[in-house]
Amino acid sequence: TVNGGVTFEAQFQHEASISIGDICLAPSQPDIIWLGTGENNGRNSVSWGDGVYKSTDGGKTWKNMGLKESFQTGRILIHPEDPNIVYVGAVGRLWGNNEQRGIFKTVDGGTHWEKVLYIDDMTGCIELAMHPQDPDTLLAAMYERRRDPFDGGNPVKRYGAGSGLYKSTDAGATWKKLTEGLPTGKLGRIAVDYLQSNPDIIYALLESEEIGKAPPGSHLPALMGIQGNSRDGSATLTTITKDGAAEKAQLKKGDLVTEIDGKPVENYRGLVDQIRAHKAGDEVTVKYLRDDKPAETQLTFAARGSSTGRPFGTRLGGQTANIQSKQGPEGFQTGGVYKSTDGGEHWQRVNSLNPRPFYFSQIRVDPSNEQILYVLGISLHQSTDGGKSFRSDAGKRTHPDHHAMWINPANGKHIVLGCDGGLNVTHDQTATWDFIDNLNIGQFYHVGVDTSTPYRVFGGLQDNGSWGGPSATRGSIGPTEHDWFVIGGGDGFLCLADPENPDSIYYESQYGRMGRINLQTGARRQIRAPKKKGQELRFSWKTPFLLSPHNPRIFFCAGNRVYRSLNQGQGLEAISPDLTTTLKGTCTALAQSPRDANVLYAGTDDGNLWMTSNGGERWEKLIVPLIPGPRRVNSIELSRFETQRAYVVYDGHYYDDDEPYVVVTEDQGKTWKSLRQNLPSGTTRVLREDVSNRDLLLLGTETGLWVSLDRGNHWNRLNNNLPHVAVHEIAIHPTAGEIVAATHGRSLWILNITALRQMNPQALKQPVHFFKPHTAVLWQGATGKRFYGSRRFVGTNPPTGSQLTYALQKPVKRVQLTVTDIEGKVVGQFKGSNKAGLHQINWNLRQRKSNGRVKSGTYLVTLNADGEKTSHPLTVIQDPVYPASTLTFDESERLRKLKKVTDD
Fold it and tell me: Where are the strands (E) in 232-379, listed by range?
């Protein structure tokens, strides 16, 4: 942006990888920009990169400068006076070991690199900071972490002997490990920030393996074992923990707590405060209402964290704020916020706070005021007393999960905050926030389409729930954020519309929390598989489910078993045994044959592939010799054209394998063939078979979209203007001639594939080939929208009219397209490109002389290339929702004028 966020222009989107860990501008020459690829968080859903890039023209062009195996970038620093001196903190591979990690330095602008700090092949650099007045003095946070192949909330390795805080005073030539006042055990992720006005003062946010623990013999905080909300001047209990203190005291779901130990309870917040005022073992009298009748009971508080041994831990693996006094003199061993007043030589813990260490771990100090601190987490925490106490509401009215912060060095009240919901700006030090809502950076996991007109798209996003919106709008203005509506919350994933009722939408959030909503009434129904005694019930981060193509009332989903409902998700019953091999395994792919309702396939994240040909009565484990060990089954596509044909996509990156795996069977799994062919290295995500052309396959990978015209024997990149971003799902509309790509980073993109469906070796060998046009629609005009200024997101509408596509093997002298009506009258005529290649002309369905709209009906379109003519009929139909024949003259004239206003 060059106007403070009013508008944005993409700067880095067609390189090999666009997952970004850090970006840095040279202070002495701001047109020199360094960018490190690979998001540096240890989440299950993160992407990775291919090294570092450099721009010398302010971001217009980029060059890869190496470190291609660094995988994820922690931080980049540039010398304030010499832009050729650059430091890169490389985190390294997340699912495996590698040596290209640690701290790298170049003194010649990236031509040569020297590894200046290296611990081992499991430890990388997550944070670098440069002394504001002495660029030879550096601080580095080294971090040892590892994920397993599954979708747990945390890495399996969060702490390690390799993690630690280091300091160099000679530009990285030598390093000293800082330990004075810091925990002595294994450490996790660390963040640091210098006070710009006095760099002797440094703040650090540090994770320790002792996080959340209490000192031996201390009084543990109280736990009542309930959840609830406020109601009628009391607190109503909505959940009672099994075998918890409340259940043992005979309290039940629905009870209204009015008093504890003689003190009134006016709301749920007040109940929580009273619980926190007690310690484990305290016995209190609880007064409550049950069915409007007063009652009381004796309750003995249990110990919070007694099962984990971390009573001061938080739900997502962090540590509570402001309890440092309760952790005793050895509390510094548990991590939190630390302060140094001598440049990092000695440290003192000032607060226990560390919200969710492996995922956030960002701390900032106001450039000119050491008393004002920010710690980023699910909430935004702020301290105004140098860290002695923090409040958690500094990010009020912003989306939770805060990852990035920039504070204006000249004005500490001006802050830019990056979170899971996007970008926010404050000019009054967090009192108010402005949400920048014009960036198309949605991280979609899935997309579905419905049968309405124009059709709608539905999809789930990373920590932004599930949404629906139009694929296009009437009029010249495309879809805006105001055209979209919320389907569900949490982390959104699959979204499917009932093909018989487009207002009935199935959706889900993480770990199998599925549901169905009626968009007309707002009614919701939860969908959840029953847990039977003695059975493990596990669901993946992204739970596969489907509506049967034979009967959409039949609903299938899969956890570690496959479940079926005959009634729109209600009454789920298991139709398979546990299909996994490991104790963490879950199903990650599920498909039913469009040709045979008894044939289902299921795949797991621990590498199993199963098939049933009798509706689930018996399952057969399929062996795919082409796959070198366990790999996640990410996508299964059962053919619409051949009953025994199945395509399977494996994702190897969870097993530290970057190779693509696409296989096909023609005999229900007895034999397999690889379809890798000319695909480059890189993770494969999803494959879809076209609904009308049996040879047309579409493949989503970590860096874009690929197409095969010959059923996988050869692949072509289909990105065009689509950024090189991960494509997690592809929806093929059954009638519109379009596909929708769900990208994990650049939202939803739509492509017309009418011409692609007609491409085959014979057609492409012809000197001239004119493709049959898709049915065109005479859309009625929009009723107009209010004016919003320049800062708004507007999607792209498809061209209004008919897209006419032709291909030339060689250049010709002259190309002309002519449209005639049923009487042979010419209603449209255009000159086309005469160059070799694929070309497209859009006819706007207007007559060439009067410029009036043509009538619905059948027209003939003729391509003339140097005298060689090819003709195809073109069907033009009325707007299915607002056909012109149903409008009075006054209504038609009103819509025409409104459309003119909108277009103007």
Answer: 234-240, 256-260, 263-264, 283-290, 293-300, 302-303, 335-340, 348-351, 362-366, 369-376
Edge-to-edge strands of the sheet including 727-732?
727-732, 738-743, 748-752
Q: Burial of 761 by CB count in 10 Å (0-12 exposed, 13-18 middle, 19+ buried)?
A: exposed
Side-chain-side CA neighbours of 735 within 13 Å: the count stands at 11
Provide, rounded to the nearest whole percent, the portion of the chain with pLDDT above 90. 89
- Beta strand 868-878 with 776-778 is parallel
Extract the tokens encoding 411: 């004005």
**Could you tell me which residues come within 8 angstroms of residue 4 by beta carbon, excluding any fewer than 6 positions away?**
none
> Per CATH, which fold does 222-303 belong to?
Pdz3 Domain (2.30.42)
Cβ count near 897 (within 10 Å):
12
Helix (H) or strand (E) holding 272, with range, is helix 268-276
23-81: pLDDT as tens digits: 999 999 999 999 999 999 999 999 999 999 999 999 999 999 999 999 999 999 999 99
**Closest Cα partner for 375 from 385, 387, 576?**
387
Phi then psi dihedrals of residue 738, to 5 deg: -130, 155
Secondary structure (3-state) at 755: helix
- Give the chain's length: 904
Domain ranges of the chain: 1-178, 190-214+307-439, 222-303, 690-753, 768-903
Q: Per-residue pLDDT tens for 791-802?
A: 989 999 998 899
For 544-562, the pLDDT digits (tens) are 999 999 999 999 999 999 9
Classify domain 768-903 at the CATH topology level. Immunoglobulin-like (2.60.40)
Write out pLDDT tens, residues 635-676. Answer: 999 999 999 999 999 999 999 999 999 999 999 999 999 999
CA 317-318-323 angle, to 5 degrees, is 140
**Kind of pairing between the strands at 302-303 and 283-290:** unpaired
Instruction: Name the nearest CA neighbour of 682 among 636, 651, 720.
Output: 651
Q: Which CATH class is domain 190-214+307-439?
A: mainly beta
**Cβ contact 554:547 at 8 Å:** yes
Task: Kindly give, in sequence order, each residue whose CB lies less than 8 Å from that of residue 463, ignoring residues fewer than 6 positions away.
Answer: 399, 400, 401, 420, 421, 490, 491
870 alpha carbon, distance to own chain's centre: 46
Question: What is the identity of the amino acid at 251?
Answer: L
Structure tokens at 716: 């072509």
Q: For the CA atoms of the chain, what is the radius of gyration?
A: 30
On whether the pTM is more than 0.90, the answer is yes
For residues 495 and 515, the answer to whether their CB atoms sit within 8 Å is no
Cis peptide before 502 (omega within 30 of 0): no
37-40 long-range Cβ contacts below 8 angstroms, 24+ apart: 37/73, 38/70, 38/71, 38/72, 38/73, 38/91, 39/72, 40/72, 40/73, 40/74, 40/91, 40/126
> How many angstroms separate the CA atoms of 899 and 904, rounded?
8
Is residue 903 pLDDT above 50, yes or no? no
Mark residue 512 as left, alpha or beta (left: phi above 0; alpha: psi -120 to 50; beta: remaining).
Answer: left
Sign of CA dihedral 79, 83, 85, 89: positive
Decide: 72 and 21 in contact? Cβ < 8 Å.
Answer: yes
